[in-house]
Amino acid sequence: MSELLVIRHGQASFGQDDYDVLSDLGHRQSQAVGALLREMDWVPDRLVTGTLRRQKETLASMGFTQAPEEHAGFNEYDFGDLLQARFKGNVPDLVKGDRKTHFRALRETVFEWQDAAFDGAAETFAEFTARIDAARAFACDTDAARVLVISSGGVIGQLTRDALGADKRHMMELNLQIKNTAMTRFMFKGPRFSLSEFNATPHFMTPSGAKLLSYS
Question: Is the pLDDT of residue 174 over 60?
Answer without folding.
Answer: yes
